[in-house]
Amino acid sequence: MVDMEERKKLYEETRKDLLARQLSNAEHFDKAILSLSTAGLGFSLAFIKDIVPIAKASCLGLLHYSWYMFVMAIVVTLVSFHSTHRKEGRP
């Protein structure tokens, strides 16, 4: 009887630890996506004129698409942060 209670307690502690680690990994992944997207967008906007003049650029559509995707990655990550905080009861 004591052995089953001890096993159940160990199981609950291990599960709680694994869930906390999973949450931490997800938060770190979201922060990495946000950082990389922001840096990519910032660098491409800041240095586009130094690398290729806009008048001579051949694939402006792809450039605009990449900016759109960077912005979408940033927005989705921020919405994810906001919804997680609201779900946990934080303002």
Can you characterise this structure?
This protein has 91 residues and is an all-alpha fold. It has one domain (2-87). It has helices at 2-51, 60-87. It starts with a helix and ends with a helix.
List the helices and strands and how they pair.
Elements: H1 2-51, H2 60-87
Number of helices: 2
- Mass-distribution shape: rod-shaped
Model regions low in confidence, pLDDT < 50 over at least 5 residues = none
Helix content: over 70%
Characteristics of this structure?
about 90 residues; mainly alpha; 2 helices
Give a quick summary of the entry:
With 91 residues, the chain is mostly helical. Helices cover 86% and strands 0% of the residues.
